[in-house]
């Protein structure tokens, strides 16, 4: 296996990655390695991870010269920006370290509570953050399509959001499905907290037309499928996005890194990064 250290003298975005041995972490290491303008500058994982102390790119048969550490200060020391795809409690620990050290943050993690989101909003007074439950261009364009569809189909259409993911996913519904619900609810002047229906069982009664329903499928290695169904009388419209590879999330994350360069504070999402607002 060839292990040539990666020097990239011209690269100017110094990127640390949290959850570096995870599905997204590994995809991000590869995307950074293959990019012309980013360089791996730190690699974080849990103290219990067998990867601690190893080179972060070893799984690619390549040496980045960056060892995986569980110490956020060590992992962030050389970084301008951290990309975090972990779990909410991990992201919040990294957020505190980023705030102390003035390191910007790209958050892909999903499953935050409202209180946890408030902590992120507060930290964005001191550092610049891009946070989005889905970094792919396709999903963010789909969100815009949903906004338009919801406005045009505001009466007479029942709205159901169906998502499918791999067997390892721990949160439900997916962050993307919830975001789709929020976008649709906002377009219709509804509050998702009041109108979301997350489960149905037994004698449910007839469907309340003001609700937005969610269905979750978990199985195998499904990367991520989302469908929004607008079911009317005599017709139905389905808007579907299917991910076949996590590379799209990684590429979107690198676009977020470039967007954050030179920004000192503020909370942004992929609509800002992609100019879709
Ligand atoms: N925004 C987007 O575009 C996308 C978002 N996601 C989200 O990203 C997150 C990660 O997904 P995925 O990569 O599939 O998950 P994985 O479980 O494959 O990876 C998570 C990584 O984070 C580490 N980790 C877990 N808990 C903590 C913690 N408390 N502190 C620090 N590190 C921790 C894990 O370590 P260990 O293995 O040792 O537990 C692992 O290295 C999920 O919330 C998912 O929904 C996923 C894809 C796209
Ligand atoms: O856990 C995943 O895999 C994914 N999570 C994100 C979500 O919860 O929406 C994005 C994508 O669907 C993959």
Provide the CATH superfamily of the largest domain.
NAD(P)-binding Rossmann-like Domain
**Terminal-residue CA separation:** 45 Å
Helix content: 25-40%
The helix/strand class is alpha/beta
Reported by name, the CATH topology of the largest domain is Rossmann fold
- What is bound: which ligands? NADPH dihydro-nicotinamide-adenine-dinucleotide phosphate, the ligand O=C(O)C1=N[C@H](C(=O)O)C[C@H](O)C1
List the uncertain runs. Answer: none
The tally of structural domains comes to 2
Subunit structure: Homotetramer.
Protein name: 4-hydroxy-tetrahydrodipicolinate reductase
Function: Catalyzes the conversion of 4-hydroxy-tetrahydrodipicolinate (HTPA) to tetrahydrodipicolinate.
Pathway: Amino-acid biosynthesis; L-lysine biosynthesis via DAP pathway; (S)-tetrahydrodipicolinate from L-aspartate: step 4/4
Question: Brief overview, please?
Answer:
This protein has 277 residues and is α/β, with parallel strands linked by helices. It is 34% helix and 23% strand.
């Amino acid at each position: 296996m060839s292990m040539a250290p990666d020097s990239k003298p011209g690269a100017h975005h110094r990127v640390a990655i949290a959850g570096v041995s995870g599905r997204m972490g590994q995809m991000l290491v590869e995307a950074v390695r293959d990019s012309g303008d980013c360089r791996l500058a730190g690699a974080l994982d849990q103290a219990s991870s067998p990867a601690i102390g190893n080179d972060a790119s070893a799984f690619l048969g390549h040496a980045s010269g960056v060892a995986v550490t569980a110490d956020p200060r060590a992992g962030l020391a050389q970084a301008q920006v951290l990309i975090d795809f972990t779990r909410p409690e991990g992201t919040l620990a990294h957020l505190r370290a980023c705030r102390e050290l003035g390191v910007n943050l790209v958050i892909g993690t999903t499953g935050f509570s409202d209180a946890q989101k408030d902590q992120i909003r507060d930290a964005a007074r001191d550092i610049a953050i891009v946070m989005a439950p889905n970094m792919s261009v396709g999903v963010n364009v789909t969100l815009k399509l949903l906004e338009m569809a919801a406005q045009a189909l505001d009466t007479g259409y029942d709205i159901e959001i169906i998502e499918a993911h791999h067997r390892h996913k721990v949160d439900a519904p997916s962050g993307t499905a919830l975001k789709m619900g929020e976008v649709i609810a906002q377009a219709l002047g509804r509050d998702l907290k009041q109108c979301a229906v997350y489960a149905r069982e037994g004698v449910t009664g007839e469907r309340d037309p003001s609700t937005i329903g969610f269905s979750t499928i978990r199985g195998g290695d499904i990367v991520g499928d989302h469908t929004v169904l607008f079911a009317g009388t005599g017709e139905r419209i389905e808007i579907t996005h299917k991910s076949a590879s996590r590379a799209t999330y990684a590429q979107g994350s690198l676009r977020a890194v470039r967007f954050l360069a030179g920004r000192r504070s503020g909370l942004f999402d992929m609509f800002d990064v992609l100019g879709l607002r």
